[in-house]
Amino acid sequence: MTLPRIHEARGLAGDELGAISDLERRVVAHDGGRLKLEWAGLRERPTDEVHDLLAWDGATLAGFCGIYQFGAEPELAGAVDPAYRRSGIGSALLARALALVSARARPTALLVTPRATESGRRFAEAKGATFAHAEHHM
After folding, report:
1. Which helix (H) or strand (E) is 90 found in, with range?
2. Of all helices (H) and strands (E), which one includes residue 53?
3. At residue 9, what are phi and psi to the nearest 5 degrees?
4. What is the pLDDT of residues 70-108, one digit of tens each?
C-alpha cells in the first residue's frame, strides 16, 4: 500500500469536517471509547497557519491529526482508519505535526490518546511517548 497524500489544512471546509466525522465514527465503532477531537475548535479553525493534517487515499480520509493550543503545550489528537493501520499513516501524521510544532518554537507536545483503547496506547509507546496524566471525561 502506498502512503496516502497528506494535506496540510489552513481551516477546514465542510466536506473535510464531514470526512473527519465519518473517520471518527469508523474508529469509535472499531475501538470503542471516544476521541478528543474538539469539534467546536475544528469548526472554527483559523486560516493563518496549518492546524490540521488529513491523510487522503483518493476520496477516503484514512487518517487525521489536529494540533490544538489550549495552554503552553500543544496537544495532538487524531485517528487512523482501522483498515489503514500499520501502514505508516499515523507515523507520518505524527512526524509532520511534530515538525509543525517545532517550527512554532514549542519543544514538546502532548499526544492525546483515549485511555479505553489499546491501539492508541500502543502507538504512543511505540513512538517513545511516556504517560504524563489522565483527564476524566464528564
Report:
1. helix 89-103
2. strand 52-57
3. -95, 135
4. 878 899 999 999 999 999 999 999 999 999 999 988 778
Closest among 80, 83, 34 to 53, alpha carbons compared: 80
Element (H, E) at 52: strand 52-57
Q: Which three cell numbers stand for residue 137?
A: 471525561
Is pTM beyond 0.85? Reply is: yes
Bridge pairing between strands 75-80 and 110-111: parallel
Crossing angle (nearest 10°) for helices 118-126 and 14-31? 100
Q: Hey, is 60 helix, strand or coil? A: strand
Cell of 93: 501524521
Q: Give the span between the Cα atoms of 47 and 12, in whole angstroms.
A: 8
Cα–Cα nearest to 66, from 138, 9, 128: 9
**Strands lying side by side in the sheet with 75-80:** 5-9, 52-57, 60-68, 75-80, 110-111
Which residues, at least 6 apart from 46, have a Cβ–Cβ distance to it below 8 Å?
Answer: 10, 11
Q: Say how many residues make up the chain.
A: 138
Cα separation, 101 vs 97, in Å, equals 6
